[in-house]
Amino acid sequence: MENRIIEFLIEAKKKTYAGKGAETKSSRIKSHDLVYSDEEFIVLRYISRR
């Protein structure tokens, strides 16, 4: 299971901000949200401005 999580997180990084992934609706003021999921896990990353 641990290896599966690590593989998922590496792929999520490639598909989100590291890979300039598609943005989704912002969940915070002045933020840019990126979401990646597969059949088991989901990750939400956000980049915000001050």
Task: Tell me what the structure shows.
- The structure is a single chain.
- The chain is built from one helix and three strands.
- The protein has one helix spanning 2-15; strands at residues 23-24, 31-37, 42-48.
- Strands 1-2-3 form a three-stranded antiparallel sheet, with helices on one face.
- Strand 1 and strand 2 form a beta hairpin.
- The N and C termini lie far apart (37 Å).
- The model has no long low-confidence stretch (mean pLDDT 87).
Give a brief outline of the structure:
The chain is an alpha+beta fold.
Q: Could you tell me how far the N terminus lies from the C terminus, measured between alpha carbons in angstroms?
A: 37 Å
Radius of gyration: 12 Å
Mean pLDDT: 87
Structural class: alpha+beta
- What are the secondary-structure elements, in order, as H or E? HEEE
Write the layout of secondary structure elements.
Layout: H1 2-15, E1 23-24, E2 31-37, E3 42-48
Antiparallel strand pairs: 1-2, 2-3
